[in-house]
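Worked example 4.2. Below are the chains of a multi-component assembly; read each line carefully before continuing.
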Amino acid sequence: MARPVAAVRYELITLGDELLLGLTANSHLTFIGAALGRQGARITRNVTITDEADQIAAQFAESWARSDVVITTGGLGPTCDDRTREVVAAVLGQELVFDDSIRAAIEARFARLGRRMTDNNLKQAYRFSRGEVLPNANGTAPGLWAEQDGRVLVMLPGPPNELQPMFSEQVLPRLTRLGLLAEREAYVQVRTAGIGESALEVKLQPVLGPQGEALSVAFCAHQGQVDLRLSSPSGALPMERLQEIARECATLLGEDFLCIGHDSLAKVCADLLRSGEHTLAVAETATGGLLANCFTDVAGASKFFAGGCVCYSNESKMQLLDVPEDILIQHGAVSSENAVAMAAGVAERLGADYGLAITGFAGPCGGTKENPVGTIFLALYTPGGVWSRRLCQSGPRAAVKQRAVNAALDWLRRELLRAKRGGCCGSAAAQQRAGGAMQ
Amino acid sequence: MARPVAAVRYELITLGDELLLGLTANSHLTFIGAALGRQGARITRNVTITDEADQIAAQFAESWARSDVVITTGGLGPTCDDRTREVVAAVLGQELVFDDSIRAAIEARFARLGRRMTDNNLKQAYRFSRGEVLPNANGTAPGLWAEQDGRVLVMLPGPPNELQPMFSEQVLPRLTRLGLLAEREAYVQVRTAGIGESALEVKLQPVLGPQGEALSVAFCAHQGQVDLRLSSPSGALPMERLQEIARECATLLGEDFLCIGHDSLAKVCADLLRSGEHTLAVAETATGGLLANCFTDVAGASKFFAGGCVCYSNESKMQLLDVPEDILIQHGAVSSENAVAMAAGVAERLGADYGLAITGFAGPCGGTKENPVGTIFLALYTPGGVWSRRLCQSGPRAAVKQRAVNAALDWLRRELLRAKRGGCCGSAAAQQRAGGAMQ
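Applying the procedure described above to all two chains together yields the following structure tokens:
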């Protein structure tokens, strides 16, 4: 198989009524698609069907005929609904053989958990006669692997906590050894923040334009952030050249550049806080804990993250953040004055160098004529002063909340960058540039 | 079409490289699958493919031949990659006609946003000659509708904020009028909390067992909660009987019963707090704002939710919650003593009737020999006293956090139920029953 990895035809068959009924998101597609994508391959088709035997048989036969690698998920469990193993064996013309090593692993698992093993669990101890077993460290159903007709079949259990480690630790290395995946990451990702997709395209034209067909650029926008992935499916540009192009993009982007790689906005802020030995405290209303939560997902957050307050009631703003009652009476909770008082209050109360606050109407209810639903006030307290900014957003509540959090983080990031360069009073200039309403 | 709705063959074709590369979750399957499921129908197959014209043509022809309704998502935009409209028209043997009403809507949208309309946007003003337009209130690309060969075609734009309202407000009513969906909800959902799937099956056997084939029961487990959906695909049991069975389940389940319908655990707690005129404050470390966030997603939360603190540092626990320094020195932050001090501290500081606290090691780092990763301490402060509980969990960080939040909410819910019935000191008994380690 000396074809380029990008031309290998992968198909993913995801089984389960719960997916088709919308009870569970298809996380297998997201996980497996991203993992293959990192190593230069792409799923050409994902089909989700029910657990019915004849549908599985027809779909598997079709996918097998036109693919190089077929991956199935689900349907390997102990109940009578789980017929995938038998159906696929029949299509391949393989026999299922009872494997004592699988039985021993299942029995050991039950013993360890102190549970009684029922006989139907032994159904999971069968493998293809000309195939291998992928041991399951987190459940009873092992995965199955078979190579036949110049093709590869991978069958994985449905629960994500079983499938994901099995795929990363066993399947990816096997596919790589067979030359069906690139040996290392096949693209370079440049992350940006605070710039839209079309503006980004224009800004990067001087670097990306001259590369022509050799360079493939994919844009991916998500709530105020845009990532771009640079790859060279033909192999015309080596990895070193892609990394060079990424660095040229970074230079051109200036402050709009977030990172090369996969770091989150919160992780980039965390690194800037740590390297400057700064601490941060946050206060929020409408975003209800999301701002605090993104820092607590960064490892070692306790080093720089002093804490956060979710202050829905006016009482809590006064009690926890020392917001003066006058401000709440005169300006209301959704105001730049309150945002400033919250940011300063939480920083001072927790002895932090920086304070970041979000207040606003995330919708769908609330809002006033002056400040309709979607109005968000941010405030940033820094060693050099305190500023506020007003955002107007639309869309469903969850999106408004996430974009507000991203806007707040991006503001903090830009301020920390300026502090690192030794600038001061940068915030006012930044706001002017960003065109936000100022208070 | 006098067939039962459950036998109507729906296929969903989702287009987009970003889905296959794992950059975006397939939220269309989840959303459309759930919406059709509520009205008794089911997607029989979902196929995700790239935007390439020949692949779209082949897949569409195949799906069209074997289905009653085909729904496509994506590929209707203004760029040259968006060829779905043309490709599908060719398969159907329909012409595309320029529609002045669509052009007017697109122009009006650009004018309203104060942006200049580029000519490629007019590509979106074409519809099938024998078809209709589904106006798009949230974007430029309208949806398309056609009935042909006794089949229905629905083409929807890709962005979820455009697709979802279009589907709910326009597509569902049209499908219902054609008899392809049930006129009202086709199943009854019983939600439970704090009981596992197999225990639930055993407990409900006296009610569900005798119904035989007439009743279909689907279980869906998610992070400490299990939902069951009762339906009668054959129509043997009318809706009234399904509701009666649901109420019998509720009675049998006692405190393990959460609700009939779709309310979240936080919403059920919110209703109990409101009806008892109680207020709540929360404090958390490892869950980092997730506990607070679930209350702020309930409409009108400011009526009962006093606020929350995310206290990563010891400093913040002392400053915001008055946790005595001695406790942190002697017992550490991950201890029942600290959880109790946090719950009491946040309730007293914010003048709330109830205080709920979570502290622990969510992983992947941290943990001690006594309290390894996955150890979570909960504490509940009530008008009748304050208690703590210890949980041990495993799995990825996000799952540990979500299950800790659900366990805390479920404990609060049970306590509020007892308070409503006029019981007191119920918590101790509940903990004994739940088998949690007690401090």
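Take a moment to check your reading of the output against the notes. Chain A touches chain B through 74 residues (CB under 8 Å). The first strand of chain A starts at residue 10 and ends at 15.
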